[in-house]
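In this section we walk through a basic example: taking a raw amino acid sequence and producing a predicted 3D structure, encoded as discrete structure tokens. The instruction is simple. Fold the sequence below.
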Amino acid sequence: MEEKKISVSLHENESYIRKRCENCDDILIRPMRLGEGHKVDCLMVYIEVAVSNMMLDDSAIGKMINHFWEIPEEKIREFIRRNSLGIADVEELFSMEEVFGAVLSGNAVFFMDGYDRAMKISSKGYPGLDVSEAETEKVLRGSKEGFCDSVKTNAALVRKRIRDTRLKVEQQNIGVRSNTVVQLLYVEDLVHEELLIAVKERLESFTVDGILDSGMLEQLTEEAWYSPFPQFQTTERPDRAAQELFNGKAVLLCDNSPVALVIPGAFNSFMESSEDWYNRFEMTSFLRVLRYLAMAVATLLPGLYLAVIRFHTQILPANLILSFAQAREGVPFSSVVELVFLELSFELIREAGVRIPGTLGNAIGIVGGLIIGQAAVEANLVSPVVVIIVALTALGSLAIPNEEFASAFRLLKYGFLFLGGYLGIFGIVLGLYLTAAHLAGLLSFGVPYLVPFVEKNGQAETGGRILRQPFRKRKFRPLYARDDQKRRLRTKLWRQKGKGL
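The resulting token sequence is shown next.
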């Protein structure tokens, strides 16, 4: 379908716009007459809330329009052709599709009779939440800024941290009806060209009515859609996004979403916190080891408990076996049913706490867990040991920094629970083998998911697998960056004879 060009006749343009905008009462079409003697017909089209009257009064284009009241007709068009693009954030538009794209993005569009182009006047756009603190990635040290719902504000927050023209921001619209703005951010000399090509091909591989959040974009572009493990790393923190850009990765920002997608995603990256590089390496290394232990507890502890008490009681001390048996005395359910019942109860409490707003949700989570756990023990529905197992499992999953990554292990927990409950240690080993095989075959935009624990194209990562390197030893970038840009840190030691360093 051929695009309709903007006509020289303002009446024709206005008729077409009014026909397209029929019953769109939020889109304002404001005719005006400018110039000396009010001889020039003009038109302003904008969305009522997105473009305020204050913007039109106080902006440079508003002052220009006020100036048009005083100058002769023949000088207005010449003034626009020569000067308008230099005095305001204005862009020339040549077709009606560009006009409606600009208006529906929250800008104003200015038409003039006898002029076959329109002018897009940028404004603050649609109302939205301002920059606030990241909710899901709390840190004790580091920036408190988090992404908001405006994609341009989010890109500016990243640009604020990478003040270099080698940071590129490529924009495109996705969604036939939503026309959602999606921006691809990367550092030109760090990112691999193959990664950019793969990302752009994935974004062009589908056609959909609308994209309302980056989560929809993630599900449409991931290759292994059946895997519970996310192939995109998500973050609400601009500093984390900037850090990953320095590593040679790319970042996708989606309008109306405060969550950025970092690609490619890797197992090790999901286990890192945003403040890991702000604190000293000794404590950070200890916390990373603790997170990996928490991941193992969150996944394996229920299954191991069932495997031991049902099949392998001989590996426990006699006193501990007697304690377990005494605790289960009077419980009418099998150990598998007992554990599944309590795990689902805690999942229900967690979900209820998330859905109820404000501090009431936290109160329900704490009080509900205590009351249900205590009442279930007193009613002999579950044993006290199982309550402890479920509580440790929940704490382990909460210690994983990325919520989407932690949810994968929350699902795997039930698989290991049944494998351990019905096959014993053999079932746990079988589950570990299947999980490791799945992770080993998983790719995120051509990068092995288990990097840096495995090699990529014969290259192995030097350091930084679990323990964090001292910052002064972190001289090379990860495998994601180009080979000619591997070195990130250079130190200079100036010595003067007799004067020390």
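Looking at the output, two observations stand out. Residues 494-501 have pLDDT under 50 and may be disordered. Residues 133 and 257 are 15 Å apart (CA to CA). In the next section we compare this with other chains.
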